[in-house]
Write a structure and sequence with these properties.
single chain, alpha/beta, TIM Barrel, eight-stranded parallel β-barrel, three-stranded mixed β-sheet, 17 helices, globular, signal, lipoprotein, membrane, EC 2.4.1.-
Amino acid sequence: MREIRRNLLCFLVLFLGCACVARGYVNPIEVEGKHFVDSVTKQPFYIKGVDYQPGGSSDVTTNKDPLSDSETCARDIVLFQELGINTIRIYSVNPDLDHDKCMSLLAAAGIYLILDVNSPLENQHLNRYEPWTTYNEIYLEHVFKVVEQFSHYNNTLGFFAGNEIINDRESAKHAPPYVKAVVRDMKDYIKAHSARSIPVGYSAADDLDYRVPLSSYLECCENVDEDISVDFYGVNSYQWCGSQTMESSGYDKLVEAYKNYTKPVFFSEFGCNKVLPRQFNEIEALYSKGMYAVFSGGLVYEFTQESNNYGLVELDSDGAVRLLKDFDMLKKHYDNTKLPTADDVNKAAAADSSVLSQKDALETVPICEKSYKNLGINGKVADGLAGDFVKNGVDVNKGHYVDLEENDFTTTYDIFDSNGNNWSGSKTIKQVNSIGATEPQAKPSGSADDKANSNEPSNNGNAKKNAGSAPVSPVGAIGISVLLMLLNFF
């Protein structure tokens, strides 16, 4: 009897653990052919977002980065939801800091992250002109620490292996093989240590001499070895300024350049500032039939106002936020943006036979050529530097979602509108997904028709009552009752 009772107690503990902890869930985004898709609903996922690096990349230090302070995260996520975005890009983080609460808040808000693995700090980026001096174990350890920590968050959409590393003749002569090596190393590490496949890509400079040939080089494989190919390609483009058209901006040439690309392509930066406030008329084109069969959306550069004058908001020294006219214009366009569904994408692809089909993208493996225009690809990269890390992993805290309290969702910072008046919007994050041990919603996040992808993130009404709690399903409650009765019997 005592043995039976002990076994029942053990089973009850395990049952409760499963019933309570396995609840919080965010649908990961994955790559299928030339599109991002929600891994659960299988609907296409179109990026509608902003680039986010308050203070610039140089503001990342040993004690702070954009995701280390949950109070500033809450402040900015409120405004992300006001814009109606579903994705942010961050250029650099410190993997030795705690990012759990900020990532949990982003996930609760239905917002995904694309993260660069490099930083401007020493030993944390490639020297574009002499990459052999920086491609070493110290650098790779930093890269893998970022990958290891953020691979445990389901709302990590993907990683950038580099940003604008090739941007002139000299860097194009030396750096391409090293970028491809970093992509390979990251994919090897993810395969060995991550519970899911997380896409790895590259963000290209706005330079026509290198952008297209580099995309082909990073797409190609040797001996059908896909582990050296990028999973997506980001294009930094500032060519649509003010009131233009597909033709006058050259967007039609962009579509032509990538219509046969086998991976997802999107704008990793866009938003020309030659006309202020920025009009963002290119958004209508980007999410139109003329582009969405080829491009998977984009990220506006950038959220906070820095010295280069691309900001949507301006931060005061005390953390207060003032919305700029650019914010108002972007919100107007994003509010009017309908993201394409699978049916929309299929119809657009069928209407233009010159665009590579999803079926062909899935079946095509481009084999590397001997040369690519304007690129030096024959440099010898040191072998085996990533081997020990891929085999044994790195020493870093693994990210995980945490339970969120009611006050975590509300910002206490002052927010002012673009006229300098107190902002009239809600200062509380609308909870789209329940994170941690809270109960998830029936409707999965990340799908094209999800509120997180539209302009009105829905409030499920459970943010307060579920925060920090661990609800149990009716089936779980019945099971626990039966187990307790058996315990009383024995």
